[in-house]
Design a protein that fits this description.
Number of strands: 0
Largest sheet: none
Order of helices and strands: HHHHHH
Structural class: mainly alpha
Length: 113
């Protein structure tokens, strides 16, 4: 009978510690993280810009595929080679700097990014 109060107190303490531990992790929810680091709009090349880039890459022998207007793995590989050859940051994406270096016209929205 003397052990019963000890067991009850141990269970209460254990539940309290578990609740505190659970609450301390709740601040890392996606909603909390989203409010901490707000990202601006994502820069995306248009299909026409991708086709123009594929044509230029093909002309410079960095790409041998068709002008599909989609960033395939072959297109990304060609972009990386082009960016490396031109001294740009090698990302494999059609970012603003790469489009400008290629002489491809930016949209009004892209110019403000």
């Amino acid at each position: 009978m003397k052990k019963l109060p000890f067991v009850v107190l141990s269970l209460i303490l254990l539940c309290g510690v578990a609740a505190i531990a659970q609450n301390s992790n709740s601040s890392t929810t996606p909603a909390a993280n989203a409010s901490k680091s707000k990202r601006g709009p994502v820069f995306r090349a248009t299909s026409d810009q991708i086709k123009q880039a594929q044509a230029l890459l093909k002309q410079r022998n960095f790409y041998s595929g068709d002008q599909t207007g989609k960033l395939s793995s072959e297109t990304r590989a060609g972009l990386k080679d082009y960016q490396k050859a031109e001294g740009l940051k090698v990302t494999g994406t059609l970012n603003k700097t790469t489009l400008m270096k290629m002489g491809i016209e930016l949209t009004d929205k892209q110019k403000t990014m």
